[in-house]
Amino acid sequence: MARVLSLFCAILFLNGCGEAVDRSPQPVIAERYDAFWLWAGVKPQPVLAQAKSIYILAGEVRADDPGRFRLLRPVTPVAPHAQLWLVVRVETLDWTPQVQGEILNLAEKWNRQGRSLAGVQIDFDSHTRNLKNYAAFLRTFRKDLPSRYQLSITGLLDWSANGDPSALSDLADIVDEVVLQTYQGRETIPGYERWLAKLDDLPMPFRLGLVQGGRWHEPENLNKIPNFRGFVIFLVNSTSRQAPD
Fold first, then answer.
1. Which of 2, 25, 83, 103 reaches 20 to 30 Å from 217, CA-CA?
2. How would you label 132-155 residue by residue, b for 16+ Cβ within 10 Å and e otherwise?
3. Which residues pair with 183 in a beta bridge?
4. How would CATH label the architecture of 25-234?
């Protein structure tokens, strides 16, 4: 009888039933991933040596100065082992043709210098109700972006639940991917699970952006969603574990 009981307990243990499984959120450890955001003011970390993709903030367009592209990284980054994405942080869509020209020229400069440039990412927090206008803006930018470059955008979790289906369909026709941010500031958004449950119907390839050190638990069904392409980790300075504003 003791042998039978021992065997039964062993089977329960192997099937994960012998003890409670800890499904509480755990800190995001960058070394477990291979795609990263590198923002201005954040020091490169050794983990970038294992990167397959690095999204690098190159410059920004501010709402109070839409006619100027502010270069935040004057030196072209060197990462021969990884695909690079040139990221532009955008506060307004009312930029001038000159600004757009400067962004495209910078992409060509990175490409000419032998960098493996996958494309351009627009980092703009479009409100869900304004997705139609955002799609129109991106369609114009996509027309001028050389076809050898992909177009990526960042997005809000709210898009998946409350976005107008026709607007999301428009975006899907324009962009190559969207990276949905699961964090705000330096912390994971509380209750992110309820938003992730709506991702099945997102009509475009997407990644999830996690913040390094933020508390996160991966949903069990995530890898079953056809358009899911993985994660991008927002790196923060290791001394303070704080991301720049």
1. 83
2. eebbebbeebbeebeeebbbbbbb
3. 188
4. Alpha-Beta Barrel (3.20)
